[in-house]
């Protein structure tokens, strides 16, 4: 132990007795003592004179300190001296440490655990060794280790559950003889693989499993495909066994896990490996600096069908507003904007609106409203959820904390859906399968759209805004908002906001009227020549689709009110008008589908064939009286008739035997020529890799011709796997030159 002398107070704490009893016992047993230095005076007693129970407690405390030591390498370097083992040379010690560093993580962990146990045992048994009871100390240590009363990390016990005297002594001998790296154990050494000597075969397997990742776990099929390819391309590959291919593929994938995932599964790469150390919106300093918008389908069926949640989040405070809509449309986004602007106020000057890249977010209506409010819209790239991290993280929280509890929950993915379906009895599913579509009871449809909207609003206000967020350093959104002491830029007139959100676009007045949304608006002022040809902004009356307010571009002081006389006074809201148009379009589509079904039922597409068959059948029932034909005389036909009759009579071909043999030989020569050409072409394609390697090798001894150099460049451009091998061969030339 590092400390050898102890005061009466320290000994009393070890024995749980008073100072006086320690002094009396020391005097009675004649403990080795010396004068205590410093204030207070008195005596202090040597470690060898202390009772056995005191030395055991000191050993346990020392073992606990060993377990908390910082580095396994430091323990490895000092273990020899601490255990009083024979000294080893610096070279051997450095070699042992280097071997330890090169061990796999699992082996290092195993050696680390054994080293901790050996050191703890040495400290634990030191008091026993001094009284020549080492075996008793070793037994006590093994018993204490089995009871986990030795102060060692939990992972040590998980790796080594129990120890014995023989085992620990063997570890001590291994440590003394071979160093710390030998404590990892002599486990099976990695076998050499033929693929290490077949780079082309290895490249073939790499290309195969990256192009078809589902084959990565099918070593038998990989071996078969390699054999077929080798035979077809005349490659002299030595193809290893199935188990060797399996080990090589697993090792290669583990060494290139991130790159392999990036190539075969970009979504998984983004979720698991994509770098996420940069700070999003580092300039953000106050509420309403950045809003993120996004939409997601609700993983639950409502009575009206499946709906979509449109959401916006204030990134600084994590406050959220939600809107349940049948679909993610510009109409729904504008309604959410109205709801958010009235509650949170207008975003700050220079504020950023981060949106999706979908058609609903880049529509003319949505983008024009951002422009009219002097807001900067920033569109995320397609399939790049990490560019909207706050809203994406919120959707995950919403999905797992609330949506999964809803009636009619249909699952987040196919696996969830299959698990839900499996709960139903087979007879119930078979019965429902035979029902009409509108009578099916696939889900527990108990919520309506307004009910879900109210539930979401309550969940946000009563839970999410009062929940501590790790991203807010343990604060809630409401606490962050209050601490910011933010002054809201409120919208004073909601009616003006309603008009703004009903902006339908920009139009040009040509003939005293404009057409917007299928309606025709006009006003007396629009008949004047000053207005004709002007570009104007059009806003619909939120309560009457027949009325529109028109402003010239870049002039908000001039306004005219235009109407559509056909609908004026009926007070049809724009939303109702648009809904009516949608229903009309839906009815037309339904009519068209019904007509197509009728055409399919009566096979209208084949009606022409039916007509022809009908007339053909009628024609067969008619009997036509034959008439006597008149022979047609033609000089050509008359001349050839005689030759034809001769062929029929003799039953011989029109060529002599010599001519037929000549034609046969000519045909044979043509076939041989074709085979030669095909063989040459196949040889050219088959030896393309060999030709490239041959030219690369020849470049070491001579300068390649321009044609040969162009071939190599083209080969390397179109054969990425073989290009590396060519560069290695040609690298010898560069090194020799240098």
Automatic annotation (TrEMBL):
Question: What's this protein's name?
Answer: DDE-type integrase/transposase/recombinase
**Biological process GO annotation list?**
DNA integration
Under the heading InterPro entries, the entry gives: DNA-bd_dom_put_sf, Integrase_cat-core, Mu-type_HTH, RNaseH-like_sf, RNaseH_sf, Transposase-like_Mu_C, WH-like_DNA-bd_sf
Record's Pfam families? HTH_Tnp_Mu_1, Mu-transpos_C, rve
* A GO MF label: DNA binding
Limits of the HTH Mu-type domain: 2-66
Q: Where is the Integrase catalytic domain?
A: 283-485
Q: Which domain of life is it from?
A: Bacteria
């Amino acid at each position: 132990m590092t400390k050898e002398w102890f005061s009466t107070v320290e000994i009393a704490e070890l024995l749980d007795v008073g100072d006086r009893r320690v002094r009396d016992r020391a005097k009675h047993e004649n403990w080795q003592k010396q004068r205590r230095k410093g204030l207070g005076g008195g005596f202090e007693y040597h470690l060898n004179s202390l009772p056995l129970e005191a030395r055991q407690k000191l050993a346990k405390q020392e073992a606990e300190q060993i377990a908390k030591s910082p580095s396994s390498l430091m323990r490895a370097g000092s273990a020899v001296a601490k255990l009083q083992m024979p000294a080893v040379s610096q070279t051997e010690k450095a070699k042992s440490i280097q071997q330890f560093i090169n061990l796999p993580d699992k082996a290092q962990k195993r050696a680390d655990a054994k080293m901790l146990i050996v050191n703890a045992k040495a400290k634990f048994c030191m008091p026993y060794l001094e009284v020549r009871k080492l075996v008793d100390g070793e037994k006590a240590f093994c018993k204490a280790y089995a009871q986990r009363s030795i102060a060692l990390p939990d992972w040590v016990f998980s790796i080594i559950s129990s120890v014995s005297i023989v085992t620990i002594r063997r570890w001590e001998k291994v440590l003394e003889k071979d160093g710390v790296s030998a404590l990892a154990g002599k486990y099976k050494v990695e076998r050499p693989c033929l693929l290490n000597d077949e780079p082309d075969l290895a490249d073939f397997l790499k290309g195969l499993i990256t192009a078809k990742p589902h084959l990565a776990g099918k070593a038998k099929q990989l071996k078969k495909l390699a054999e077929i390819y080798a035979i077809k391309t005349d490659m002299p590959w030595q193809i290893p066994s199935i188990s060797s291919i399996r080990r090589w593929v697993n090792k290669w994938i583990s060494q290139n896990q991130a790159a392999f995932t990036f190539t075969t599964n970009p979504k998984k790469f983004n979720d698991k490996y994509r770098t996420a150390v940069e700070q999003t919106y580092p300039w953000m300093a106050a509420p309403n600096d950045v809003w993120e918008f996004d939409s997601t389908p609700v993983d639950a069926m409502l009575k009206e069908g499946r709906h979509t949640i449109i959401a916006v989040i204030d990134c600084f405070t994590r406050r959220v507003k939600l809107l349940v809509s049948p679909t993610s449309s510009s109409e729904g986004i504008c309604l959410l904007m109205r709801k958010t602007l009235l509650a949170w106020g207008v975003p700050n000057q220079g504020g950023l609106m981060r949106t999706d890249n979908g058609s609903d977010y880049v529509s003319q209506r949505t983008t024009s409203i951002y422009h009219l409010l002097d807001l900067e819209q920033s569109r995320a790239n397609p399939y790049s959820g990490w560019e909207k991290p706050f809203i994406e993280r919120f959707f995950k929280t919403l999905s797992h904390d609330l949506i999964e509890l809803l009636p009619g929950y249909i699952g987040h993915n196919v696996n969830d859906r299959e698990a839900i379906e499996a709960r139903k009895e087979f007879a119930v599913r078979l019965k429902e399968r035979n029902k009409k579509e509108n009578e099916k009871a696939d889900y527990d449809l108990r919520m309506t759209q307004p009910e879900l909207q109210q539930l979401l609003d309550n969940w946000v206000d009563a839970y999410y805004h009062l929940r501590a967020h790790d991203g807010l350093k343990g604060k809630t959104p409401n606490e962050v908002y209050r601490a910011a002491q933010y002054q809201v830029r409120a919208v004073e007139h909601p009616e003006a906001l309603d008009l703004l959100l009903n902006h339908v676009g920009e139009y040009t007045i040509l003939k005293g009227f404009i057409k917007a949304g299928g309606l025709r608006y006009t006003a007396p002022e629009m008949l004047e020549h000053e207005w004709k040809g002007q570009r104007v902004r059009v806003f619909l009356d939120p309560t009457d689709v027949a009325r529109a307010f028109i402003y010239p571009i870049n002039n908000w002081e001039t306004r005219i009110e235009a109407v559509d006389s056909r609908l004026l006074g009926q007070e049809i809201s724009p939303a109702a008008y648009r809904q009516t148009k949608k229903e009309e379009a839906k009815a037309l589509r339904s009519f068209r589908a019904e007509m197509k079904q009728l055409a399919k039922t009566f096979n209208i597409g084949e009606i022409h064939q039916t007509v022809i068959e009908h007339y053909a059948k009628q024609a067969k029932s008619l009997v036509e009286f034959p008439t006597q034909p008149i022979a047609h005389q033609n000089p050509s036909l008359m001349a050839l008739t005689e030759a034809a009759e001769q062929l029929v009579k003799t039953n011989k071909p029109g060529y002599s035997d010599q001519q037929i043999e000549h034609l046969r030989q000519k045909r044979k020569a043509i076939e041989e020529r074709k085979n030669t050409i095909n063989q040459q072409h196949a040889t050219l394609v088959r030896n393309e890799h060999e030709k490239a390697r041959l030219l690369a090798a020849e470049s070491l001894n001579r300068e390649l011709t321009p044609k040969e150099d162009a071939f190599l460049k083209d080969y390397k451009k179109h054969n990425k796997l073989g290009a590396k091998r060519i560069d290695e061969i040609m690298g010898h030339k560069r090194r020799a030159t240098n």
